[in-house]
Each structure stands twice: as C-alpha cells, then as structure tokens.
Design goal:
Elements: E1 2-3, E2 12-17, E3 30-37, E4 40-49
Antiparallel strand pairs: 1-2, 2-3, 3-4
Length: 69
C-alpha cells in the first residue's frame, strides 16, 4: 500500500509480512513501513508495526497473519 503516512508530501510504502513469527507466535504477522525522504524510499527511516506494540490493538497470536490484505 502506498500513502503519505508521515505527512511529508512524499509517498511511503507499507509492506505486509503476514508470515512473520513474533516472539513465540507463529505467523503472527507484521507491517513494514518504508518512509520516503529527499533521497528516496526507505533511505532515512523505516518502521515495523506489530500487534501489541506502537499502540496497536490486541496481541500477537499464532496464525493472526497481521498485515495480510
């Protein structure tokens, strides 16, 4: 998914990683966000979002497949 997630006027890229194992949870899933800057995509900053962290609701569980579209 493409969007201006950090509101800097440039397109950023969110990539679903639904089969990512988190802690002891098999295929809990995550979303990787690559932010664009003046030097391009992901050059200066990126972030990984998971359930239970960064204010996301719920917790990781086996086979949640968080990030799957």
């Amino acid at each position: 998914m493409v969007g201006n997630f950090n509101r800097n006027g440039r397109d950023d890229l969110a990539i679903g990683v639904p089969f990512e194992d988190i802690g002891g949870a098999t295929h809990a899933g995550a979303v990787k966000v690559l932010y664009s800057g003046i030097h391009g995509l992901g050059y200066t900053a990126n972030e990984i979002l998971m359930q239970r962290f960064q204010g996301m609701p719920e917790t990781q569980e086996n086979y949640d497949f968080f990030g799957k579209l």
